[in-house]
Amino acid sequence: MKVVNEVPQEIAQIYMDYPNIGRDTLIKEFGLSYHEARIYAWVMKHGKKVYHHDLKTKPESGNTKKVGILPDIHFPYHDERALDVAINYLLKVGVDVVVVLGDGVDCYAISFWKTDPTKPIFAKEVEQTIPLIKALSDAFPENTEKVWLEGNHELRLRNELWGGSKKLAGLHSLTITEVYKLKEIGFNYVSNIELMQNEMQPFRVGKVYLLHGHEINSGWTTINIARNFYLKNPNTQILGHFHRTQEHTQKKLDLQIDGSWSMGCLCNLTPDYRPANQWNHGVGLVEWDSDGYFSFQNKKIIDGRVL
């Protein structure tokens, strides 16, 4: 029986004493959600952590909670003005949860693609980025719940370890959470890919899934990203990755309406690998109730204003 430190000690001990204990018992005895119980059961069986997080913030009946979404920051290649505008907007409206919607860090120096050799090496890039992440966390009240979704740029570290540095793969100290001190700073890291690989649902708020966008192979369409992504993944969802603000709604035969939203970004709009593009800055706000119903404001940021 493998035991890893992501499982609370009291639950790990129960598994060592009673390896065949059921998830329903865990839910009843420890007050876990079904999702948490399933995660712990899988971890105890396979000895591998799964990056997940169940929101502790829950709307009470008759009330709502708010989630602020910060898409594609790409520290330290962010747009400082756009990020400041986004943060100030979320502070003004008041949010209970902040979600970095993937690609919060760029990991430029370890990209598979051709890169500018005069830019900082990876160690320096990390050194520059950690204070920026801490400043982002500190900008919000202490009781604000913070979630960091894995994007394809976070996966650059894993891919580097699976490639030329494969002998170092698997070291806990060489994960995004450890390298960038995310947990220490206050962010809970979530990998939708790991969740789906283990037959679990991706991260969601109420009835809407929050994805980065790399989880589904939808291609790099330049016409209608939100619609194209919905056709490949017909669920109600919010995604980043494409750096463009778009919306698609779909009325189904059961009279239910799905929504698919693509968000803008908070990074430099003219990077060396794609200086001419159709990108725009953006920020989002989800408000959801105890039944999971939600509203989503998919905002653009233009000339320093949230529109």
Structure description:
The protein is of the alpha/beta class and 307 residues long. The protein has 2 domains: 1-49, no CATH class; 58-306, Purple Acid Phosphatase, chain A, domain 2, CATH 3.60.21. It is 30% helix and 20% strand. The protein has 10 helices and 12 strands. β11 (294-302) and β12 (305-306) form a beta hairpin.
Percent range for helical residues? 25-40%
> What fold name goes in the CATH topology slot of the largest domain?
Purple Acid Phosphatase, chain A, domain 2
Structural class: alpha/beta
Largest sheet: 7 strands, mixed
Topology:
Elements: H1 9-17, H2 23-30, H3 34-46, E1 64-70, H4 80-93, E2 97-100, H5 122-138, E3 145-149, H6 155-162, H7 176-179, H8 182-185, E4 188-190, H9 192-197, E5 204-205, E6 208-211, H10 225-232, E7 237-239, E8 246-251, E9 257-262, E10 281-289, E11 294-302, E12 305-306
Parallel strand pairs: 1-2, 2-3, 3-4, 6-7, 7-9
Antiparallel strand pairs: 1-10, 5-6, 8-9, 10-11, 11-12
Helix pairs in contact: 2-3
Considering the chains and any ligands shown, give keywords for the structure.
alpha/beta; Purple Acid Phosphatase, chain A, domain 2; 2 domains; globular; disordered N terminus; single chain; 30% helix; 7-stranded mixed beta sheet; 307 residues; 10 helices; 5-stranded mixed beta sheet
What's the short story on this structure?
30% of the residues lie in helices and 20% in strands. With 307 residues, it is an alpha/beta fold.
